[in-house]
Amino acid sequence: PSRAQLWKIPTTGTAEKIAGVSDSAEGIGGGVVYNEFFHTNIDSFSEQVLFNAYLSGPGVESGLNERGIWLKDGINTNLIVRGADPAPGTNGVGYFRVFYAPMFGFGNNAPELILPVRVGSLPGGQPAISSSLGTWKYTDGVLERISWTYTLPPGIPDTFFNSLYHYSSSAGNSMIWGQLSGSGITTVVVNGVSIITNQVGFFIEGDTN
Asked: Are 74 and 127 in contact (CB under 8 A)?
């Protein structure tokens, strides 16, 4: 990828342009165009392309709705999510603000897109929540929350997530690694070394979250 043009270049065959700066941003319209590309990913089996882009044009506000994630699937390019869209599973208080590198995963029933994001409230929105990390998946046109730092980790009382790390998926199974805070954090001594019990990994089997 480049910041001006995004191309898919196969080892054999013809190069294919995915999108370019000043091209109309699919799924938005109204004169809004791509301004810069970053965080791209390609699925080696389906050759679908995920890309993250900045926008410019009418109604685009810096730090609010200037980013989005798109999926190039054959001849179609579809908008998956845009900044300031409501974040499902946050009880109506969270909105997508920043997108990180999107990934391909594989659920039990259909291909998944895995979206690490930063969520917060809209400017002036109530209740106001601070910026927080989370991971959402997109399957068959539906966004679903996997994890969010404002949620409580299962089976670990008096703690909460304060950061979340990479999510990986294979044959429908997933792993989430996070760091915890709260009064439930303890210190144990192993072979004379003090270890703070503030990191945890969760295995998710199949489509169970």
From this structure: no
> Model-level pTM?
0.72
Rounded CA separation 162/170 (Å): 26
Q: Which residue, chain included where needed, has tokens 């370019």?
A: 20
Full 3-state SS string of 96-110? EEEECCCEEEECCCC
Which of 97, 55, 203, 79 is closest to 138 using CA atoms?
79
Beta-bridged to residue 23, according to DSSP, are: none
Identify which of 107, 183, 106, 100 has the alpha carbon closest to the alpha carbon of residue 134: 100
The string of pLDDT tens digits covering residues 77-113 is 999 999 999 999 887 888 999 998 898 876 554 568 8
Within 10 Å of residue 69's Cβ, how many Cβ atoms? 24
Residue by residue, what is the 3-state secondary structure of 30-62?
A: CCCEEEEEEEEEECCCCCCEEEEEEEECCCCCC
pLDDT in tens, 157-201: 877 676 666 555 555 566 677 778 778 888 988 899 998 888 887
Please name the residue that has the structure tokens 């965080």. 39
> Given the DSSP bridges, would you call strands 76-82 and 111-120 parallel, antiparallel or unpaired?
unpaired
